[in-house]
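User: Sequence recovery, please. Input:
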């Protein structure tokens, strides 16, 4: 089966606009966070364990959009089996973005002590920890390091 990805042209050539068109809705980064940091890779788990209470129709739309944007892949396990979502290299490279976004939210928005721990850990660990997280995600989601990188994700 051949998969054809349709990529829509951004409204402008601005890199910020191009990123916001993919990631700028209310739920996309939350879904990526849950797949990335909580290892929630199945639809029902993503919905059931969502701290924010995402509706099934919204989750289905966001997963479809993230697959179409090339940030996730969805396996096709066959009838009666659960599909598994995996991060692509582009999705994995969002680790530093989510780390910085979490740190900003921790400093400027009300947060709970329980849920702020990951943002603090990512901030305190800095780029070295981000590279280690990315390497672990590559192993889990892609089956190994990205070609042209060392096992910790650094460029060769």
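Assistant: Recovered sequence (156 residues):
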């Amino acid at each position: 089966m051949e998969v054809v990805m349709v990529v829509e042209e951004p409204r402008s050539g601005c890199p910020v606009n191009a990123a916001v068109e993919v990631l700028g809705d209310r739920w996309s980064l939350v879904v990526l966070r849950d797949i990335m940091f909580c290892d929630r890779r199945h639809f029902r788990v993503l919905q059931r364990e969502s701290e924010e209470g995402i509706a099934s129709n919204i989750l289905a739309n966001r997963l479809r959009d993230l697959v179409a944007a090339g940030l996730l892949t969805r396996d096709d396990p066959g009838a009666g089996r659960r599909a598994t979502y995996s991060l692509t290299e582009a999705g994995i490279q969002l680790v530093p973005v989510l780390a910085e976004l979490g740190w900003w939210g921790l400093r400027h928005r009300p947060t709970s002590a329980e849920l702020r721990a990951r943002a603090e850990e990512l901030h305190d660990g800095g780029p070295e920890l981000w590279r280690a997280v990315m390497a672990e995600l590559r192993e889990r989601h892609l089956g190994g390091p990205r070609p042209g990188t060392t096992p910790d994700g650094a460029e060769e």
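The beta strands are 72-74, 85-87.
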